[in-house]
Structure formats: C-alpha cells, structure tokens
Design goal:
Elements: E1 6-7, H1 13-22, H2 25-36, H3 40-62, E2 70-71, H4 81-105, H5 111-115, H6 123-148, H7 150-153, H8 157-177, H9 182-206, H10 208-230
Antiparallel strand pairs: 1-2
Amino acid sequence: MEEVQAFTEKVPFHIYLLNIFYCLLPAFLIYLGILVGFPVEMTLFIHFVIELIIPKIIISQFKDSYLFRIEWRANRFEGSLIMGLVLGFIFCGLTILLYYFFDKILGWDLEDNLLREPIPQNKILEIIAAFYLIVIKPFIEEWFWRSYCYFIFYRTEIDNWLNSVLWATAYVVLAIMCGLEMKGCIIVFIAFTLFGRIQLFMMKSYGLLVAVMSHMGASFGVMLCYFLEKNRKFGE
C-alpha cells in the first residue's frame, strides 16, 4: 500500500494557511452534525470524504501543478506489529483508567456526557458505527493528520503542535456538544493535543502502523467505557 511520503519542497504559505482552515472542517462537521441532527452514518461518510477522499484528490491534482509540486513516494503501511499491539493495549487501558479516575474517583459524573455521543441506537447500526470508530476512523485520522498534514505543517516544532491542536479542536467541539463542562473540555483539549504530538512521534519514528494501532487502542477504550456505562456495568 503506497501513500504520500513528502512534498518536494515546503508548500507556499497561502497553501499552508488554506490547509489550516481546511483542518477546522472536521470540528465544524461535528458541530453541524449534532446541531442539525444529521444521521450518524452521514456524518461518518462526510468525515471519510473530508479526511481521505478530498486529500487524495488534492494530491493527485497538484503533484504536477505549477503552483507547487508533490512528489509521490512509497510510504508503506508498516511498522512493528508487536509494538503496535503493546501500545494499543497501553492506550486502551490508560483511556479506561482516566475515565474511571475523573468519573468515579473525582466524581465528575461523565456518564451522561459519554452516553450523548452520537451513536445509533439501532443494534446493527450501533455495531457498524463502533467498528468504524475503532478500526476505520483511526486509520483515516492517522493518515490525514499524521501523514498528509504532517508534510504540509512540518516547518518547525511549533507546526507539530499546531497540527495536534487542530486535531484536538474537533474532539473539544464534540465534548462541548455532549454537554461537558468547561473544566472537562480543557482536559480533553490538553489530552488530545498531547496524544496528537505523541502520535506524530510514533508515525515518524516507528511507522504509520504503530500510530494507527495505538489510536485504535484508545478508541477501543472509549467505546468499551461507552458500552459498559450504557449497560450499567462500569465500576461494578
């Protein structure tokens, strides 16, 4: 499987700025989807288009453009499977522990916020959505944020953090729309910004596979908390 490895040169500044605005689209999609009441299937499909299909089209159209050139190189979906599994388990456990700490020990009562996540109530659609969120969404997000965007933003270390902040923004919007209080939203912002920077390091140092699997572990932890809370099993 081949992906885009790098731009031949740093992209022009106007393209850089346009991509910053483009990276705010996922947050806007979440806000609009919940506000208007889009079906979850439509929201997930649009997410797929924004973070995978459109970037692929941009790459294919601009790789030979006079505006700026993109070099198509082999970036295989590889890395240590063992490391990916270990990190996946670690991030899964860490996600569950953090939820338990804030919800049960500190008493932030996050159950209502978690259960407001836009997950379909139909059993079949619920399973499909869970599969998408645990397996497909991490791959799409890691490719978009840690591969495609990385080579646009990679100018200084500040850009690495900008990449992570823009990614975290979408999750902060989701937290707000699910009714999380301000202190909780700040925690979400800090946690996802740090996680995003860690994922950039993982992708660059160990490969896209490791980054995707660690992301899958965190997503599985979130969904496990969701289903346990939904069935009144968490903390028993």
